[in-house]
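My current task is to audit a protein record that another person submitted. I need someone to confirm that the token line plausibly describes how this chain folds. Take the sequence as given and treat only the tokens as open to question. This is what I was given:
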Amino acid sequence: MAVDWLLNQQQDNGQFSSSRDEVPPYQSTTEALRALDALALEQESASDKGLTYLGAVSEEGSLPYLSRWLIAQRLEDQSAADGVAAVIAHQNDDGGFGARPGDQSSVLDTLDALEALAGAGVDGAVIGRATGYLLQRQHVDGSFSATPSSPPSVYLTSRALSVLQPYRFDYDLSAPLQRAADFLWNNRQQGLWGETWESAWALLALVPITTDSAAYGFALDQLLARQTANGSWDDSVFATALVLRAMQAPRTVIVPPAPGLAAIAGRVIDESTGEPLNGVMVTAGSDEGFSVTVSTGDDGRFSLSALEPQSYILNYAAEGYGELVQSLSVEAGQFVDLGTVRLPAAPQVAVISGRVSDAVTGLPVTAQIEISGDADVSVSSGEDGRYLVMVPPGEILIEVVAPGYHPTLATATVQAGQRVAFSPTLYPADGQIPDGPVSVSGTLLDADTGLPVEGASITLAGAAVATTSDGSGTFVLTDLEAGDIGLRVTHAGYQSVAVNLVAVAGSDVDIGMLRLVPAPDPATSLHGRVYDLETGQPVAGATVTVGGLSSSTDEHGQYQIAGIDTLAFDVSATATGYLTASSALVLQQHGSVRLDIPLQKAAPDGIRILRLAKDRTAYEAFEEVLLVAEVENIGGEPQRVVMAATVQGIGSDLREDFVIPVPGGPRDARFTIDPGEVVVREFSWSTRNWPPGDYQMLVQVLTEHRDVVLAEQAVAIHVVETRHLRALNVYSAPTQLVRGEEVELEFLAGLESLSNVDAMLTLEYALVDPDGNPVHQDVVDIEVMAAASSSLVPLGTIAYRFDEAGSYPIHVLNVSGMAVTAIRADDLIVSPNIRVDGHLGADPDRITPGDSKSVHIRLRIVGAEDSP
């Protein structure tokens, strides 16, 4: 569905874009092509058109365009030697890249360049200098920002982590990358990183560096819950393409159980080394005799699907490991991810394992390993040279023989429950066997993130010899005696590891990669999703309870409860309009556990609310919340009902009740719903100036007398802080005057507020004369109250003599502190000062009394303006 929406956004010129995109079309087009490539979809026409479009815009020559074109060409396996040279031309002496040759370097342009040059075989000096520039711009907290003084950016940090990850061993980047990853992990809010596209970028950076899906599963669920009905995310090509790519990144795709069934998943690791264990047999059995067994994969993951809702005993078994048992009960529709399961070593025997190789070529050797002690054991190494054997504790003699090689002998003392590594290198029979001290080397990695661990302490048992791991996680111990070698690896925040080796004289032992497991959690963290069993839609406002701890689900149905200090506990979930659901869990170890909980709608008398939805996720003050409710009668009789709604503040006493009207129906809003009928009601509620925060809209279906609730369902409504003026009008009083007058002029601001919080409006205004010269300028702060109201606010007063007639404009120069829809400023009109002279005369100007004569009256009016 998302792919169809994405393809429908391609324009005639080949670009992928929509009006809601957060970036220019060339960026959204590139991400769309990358998403289609990640999904391995055969969309040659769409890809060709998109590449043609990017090729055309790349002629502009700016690095942002060039880099996207090169990325698209690489997707299509096309040569781009000229483009590579053009990108390199943007590199500056400081190692960074600018948008155009000679432009100042920036973090964003440098990331664009490195991403475009990836895999192009570019000279290492180019990459090394660019990497050095980026490291200089990394903040102490691990983040990156656009400029040194800019706030940390999740987007830039995520891109830097992704772009630099392939070079971590080449340029010793482990510590900087770990800091960047820590910044991202530590800056989640409710599981995500802000906007949809930002969260997708963060997941694209973090998922590839961890083998534990529990680390990002909650965030991925939150992201998927933001998908809209048309299949897109935010109606944005850019966001949708990034989420589609992020969905392909997880190593384990969580598949919801089939209707009416349940599913259980997890990841098994070695308790002491943190290594994911392949081939562990995981069996789920029930009291009714049902049993199903699966095997863990290379990443240690397992999944048990299509389970009937009941109680199960989970048994973990692997050669050389002790048995581990867990119990839990699952309900229909539930998905339980047990997170990391740590399997202990076998308690009665010692396990010896390793790889036999040729000392000259390093290739594996098929050899016979004979072990003598309290019991004699013999085993052969496989074609890959690897072997594993269990022996009783005590002193043992190990002999390794293979045709054409000198035999190798070693002695050791092993203990019950111990795992001992012995990886001998065999020397050809016609050569010499070296003698002398032993060296041991290895690389330490974080078991969850896969990143090298710097600063771990490696100590030799029974001696003072010690070293620490470097930035790439590597350590080397030299001049050690042959025989038993016990190492202890410690690091703050990690579980300490004991490494037991057997080494022959003159050998260089490489123990390979040792994964350090983060220190065991002192408590369990439970998270997951509560959803409608029939529709699969999230249930907002549900309460999930474990003992005295509880959590309410958000609008995506997500919840999280931390600090569960017991390993056996009951989980219950309740929500308005639903039946209570309960589960019991018995864990073997603390950790992060995911439990998805389905809820069954309650339907007394056959009436139920199928769906209650709102049009958006968040609303400002004085906005209409548009809602739609679908009610169904699954009973056998017609029902006369009324629908009503209640809005209640979460954590406040604010409350409003209203009846949902019937379009064209009676004033009492009663209507009849017949058996099998579904009634749809669309209605709205105004947020007015209710304070910002979370509210719950509870919709109920009542009997016609409004005395019995037949069905109810709730939806969460989030009201954001709103500092908004619908109109701002600045003018003077008086608005007109005559030239030459000295007047006291007052400036006023008319405000029309639509806010739900008190705000401080900062306003800068200026009065200028007809020639554009300033007469008066001032900055004022105005306190605006939360309300829907009009007000008149005095700004200031001046005394001034206006010696020039004309229009004096008032300019509003800067407005801050509030969003303003419309700004108007009225001009001050200064009229000319006109003097009128009148001249009156008569002809004749004298007459004799008694005579009858005509008299002509003459009136002459002369207008003149006073001089300034």
Summary: Confidence is low (pLDDT under 50) at residues 251-255. DSSP finds twelve helices and 51 strands in the chain.
